[in-house]
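Run: sequence + FE2/S2 (inorganic) cluster -> complex structure.
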Amino acid sequence: MAEKKKLSTADILAAARKNAAGGATPPPAEKQPAADAPAEVTPPSAPIAAESAGDSPAATPKSARAGGAKPSVADILAAARANKAAAGGAAAQPAAAKPAAAKPAAEKPAAKPKADKPAAAKPAAASGPAVRDTSSILAAARAASKPGPVSKSEAAARAKPAVPAKSAKGESAVPPMPAKPDYAKPKATKEAPQEERRFFLGVLVGSFLGLGFSTLSATGGLWTLAVLRYMFPNVLTEPPSKFKIGFPSDFPPGVVEEKFKAQFGIWPVNVEYKGQRQIVAIKTVCTHLGCTPNWLEAEQKFKCPCHGSGFYKDGINFEGPAPRPLERYAIRLADDGQLEVDKSRTFQEELGQWSDASCFVSV
Ligand code: FES
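>> structure
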């Protein structure tokens, strides 16, 4: 007779509530969906309770556990929805609040004793919709400078040197250089002798180098002058070939004038040659080997001191090795009446040149 009827979810929930209350089963007309309970407004602490509960078995309402009764299906569903809402993120939290509101009113006091929740969670719930995750909680805990183990990255960050402060111009302020210690400073007492030795060596080397360069310069200058002197030939400063010896009246007959022997190498003589009185200029060179004969007034002859050759007053050789008579220079009467001798021309007796009028002046 009893016909097996398929129960809906609402019926299952109603049966579960009945069992939990231990009372009679309400009529089916009283059945209402759990989601339609408008009187049950979720308190602000409901999301925190759901979040702190997580997906652990502790999410089970304490009222059910405190009584030692078996959790009802409604609690199980509420816990499942709470877990689903936590997995869906913060955007899904309002949606998860609705199933939580379906909790019976008797379960609300069970949420209050959760005073042993983490202290950091309460300020976050009071501040409103601020998102709090595990990393932010850890950062806040580490910011409190509590001693304890740190990660490698944190240790490296703490070991980093402090960034130098920047000046007003925006440049990095460089710390001042520390003062040099005494042992690093130069010792003046020990450097002085070394400096003196260096100075002495410098002067010594400089003196030798200076002397060497001076000698080299002097030698080079002398060599330059010698080369220049070699490039230019000697210039003979001979007396002019033509010169005047005076007027014919200055030379009396039979007199040999010797005052021109040293300067001009001539003997002006007023002699008679082949029956003609002449003033001639005799050359003072021996015809033997070129020596200079001497006039011997006492002996009235020219005598060569080299080999003894003797010449008469007119220059004819008569003794000694001289092979020929003494030579004559050209002579003439100049425009001013003076006798002018020309040594560029000579006349020899053996060649018959003495008969040339250019070699005598008739008086
Ligand atoms: Fe005059 Fe010999 S050089 S005699």
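>> summary
The domain at 242-362 is CATH 2.102.10.10 (Rieske Iron-sulfur Protein). Strands lie at 242-246, 266-273, 276-283, 294-296, 301-303, 310-311, 317-319, 328-333, 339-347, 361-362.
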